[in-house]
Amino acid sequence: MGDRIYDVGIIGGGIVGLATAMALVKSGVTSVAVLEAEDRLAAHQTGNNSGVIHSGLYYKPGSLKARNCVSGRQALYRFCQENGIAHQACGKLVVATRENEIAALEELEKKGMANGLKGMRRLGAAELKEYEPHVAGSAGLWVKETGIVDYRQVCEKYAEIITAGGGDIHLHFRVKKVKKNSQELILRSGSSEVRCRNLVNCAGLHSDRVARLCGVKPGLQIIPFRGEYYKLIPERFNLVRNLIYPVPDPRFPFLGVHFTRMIAGGVEAGPNAVLAFKRQGYKKSSFSLPDAVQFALYPGFWAMAFKFWKMGLGEFHRSFSKKAFVKALRRLIPEIQSADLEPGGAGVRAQALEANGFLVDDFRIKEAERMVHVLNAPSPAATASISIGESIAAIALKNFALNR
What we know:
With 404 residues, the protein is α+β, with helices and mostly antiparallel strands.
């Protein structure tokens, strides 16, 4: 790392950090360093999601999520096509399993139309079978633009473009200390350091902590939620053609347990959304005393818990009871049996929470002197990564004195 001073240091080697670095390199800023704490890129949220290319169906029209998802989806499909990355615009079916969900399904359709979706089709109960023969429900919405991809492969290509354009990627670099002076920021990880004139924080699960290291008050705290998956056994792959989702509860930023066909083969079922007691807590037994104490002392956590305790208990029950998980899945496919499922993987979502208990649902970006902090980049961040990366890069180009 030597005495080099980078124009921009980017903390976080997930898909948002890499997309931002790629956008800067493409704009002519070659003095860029991506700093990743782990021994590989896309180690956490990016590498443990379900691989869905979201359409833009769920998001409030005009929100950052909606705008970036629609433009980002289109850009991602083009990127995958141009770079030979396996992907498929397979479509998904959103199913109202009860009559009282039909109104919410209609609202989803309105949002989708406002966000420019062209491939939607409303379905009656009998028409559901045309798309997913094993599904049961009162009504449905077919969304053509949804697809699947392996986001690890997308990240590998982003990294290839970054390094080919002159940028550097440093693995095993967990930022523990940030020192600022009038000329530069010194980022330290153990005995190593990286010096940069400007900084972009894309640290995901640790974005609030990095902001505080930089002397910036984030105005929120990251609360980790673990999403656990089962997999269909090969003999039952035929139960799911593509993607099958329930109508989500609009009170929560989670989509409910669903079925997802994977680009590399197989079908995932899940995830649930259970509070994790460690920011990188991928197992039920994962526990970090500092992490647990930090959110236990945060007033926003207790405000959220008081409001949503019943939902939280249900998620914990489903986490420890396969029977309860299967029951949730059978709302969509009644013939699913416990024997049809085997344990799958898990991911941890970085859920930003304000001090009043408000679950931050949209992207949250905070600017400071010579810094940009991406404090909340929820789903569809992977889908929208090219668009988000360009937006963050545009902020950097506007605020930083960069040589191009």
